[in-house]
Amino acid sequence: MGEIASAPRLWSDFDGTAVEIVSKANPRNWSKYPLKSVPGYVDFLRGVRRGGVEVAGAVSVRPDIMPRRWATSRSVATLGLTEFFGNSAQLVLTGNEKDKAQHLVTESLGGRVGMIDDKPHRIGLALLDALSKREQSQQRVIVLGVVAHQRSQEYLDRFVTEAATQTEDLLMVEPDCRTVSVHGLSYMLQVTSLEPYSEIAGTAFAQQIAAAA
Q: pTM of whole model > 0.90?
């Protein structure tokens, strides 16, 4: 694989990653506002920046319609996230996992890309599908951080099982089963479990993005 551009960037999911999710029966779920921030999230992003990685924005499967744009922008302002997502262009609502993955793959043309998400089996498989369809001359490196929660390892294991049937590229699982790498001719996708949110965890993930190869 050839050399890629510098300036690694981080994109974040939103629901379940930046803000807590609620039951479908909860009225707050209808408008997606107001929702509580996930504890430690801001500290994590500050750690990412301290580690030399730019916080590029948030990319979500929320549909790109006015009520969702309004709710997302209001949540960012209310929860004090404007220092990271203050520009409306930094809030990307895609409507589905496929388009969310395609956004990240496009972004990866400019350099290494990190992504944090609470459902790696969904976005990871969509990324794998999108990456494997690119021309070999276009090198991509994406590092997917799996948000720490009660089902994170289960979701990571599901990604491994399903990825093994989806691709013929080299799939490597580290002995602790917390990091998985898929190497293709023109891409590398690494999926790794994060420590609970903290500034230290953010810096460590930034270093992992920069070191991925």
A: yes
Spatial contact of 56 and 142, defined as CB atoms under 8 Å apart: no
Report d(CA 170, CA 139) in Å as an integer: 16
Specify which residues 180 forms β-bridges with: 173, 191
* One-letter identity of residue 58: A
Residue 154 is assigned to a structural domain of this protein: yes
Do residues 65 and 71 make contact, with C-beta atoms less than 8 angstroms apart?
A: no
pLDDT number for residue 134: 66
Residue at 94 is within a domain = yes
CA 118 to chain centre: 8
CATH of the domain at 93: 3.40.50
Side-chain-facing half-sphere of 14: CA atoms under 13 Å = 30
Nearest 5 degrees, angle CA 52-CA 110-CA 57?
60
C-beta of residue 43 within 8 angstroms of C-beta of residue 199: yes
Q: Which domain holds residue 44?
A: 9-211
Residue type, position 44, single letter:
F
pLDDT at 34: 81
Given a cut of 50, whether residue 113 has pLDDT beyond it is yes
Q: Given pLDDT bands bounded at 50, 70 and 90, which one contains residue 31?
A: confident
> What does the block give as tokens for 170?
């080299």
Q: Reply yes or no: is the peptide bond before residue 27 cis, omega within 30 of 0.
A: no
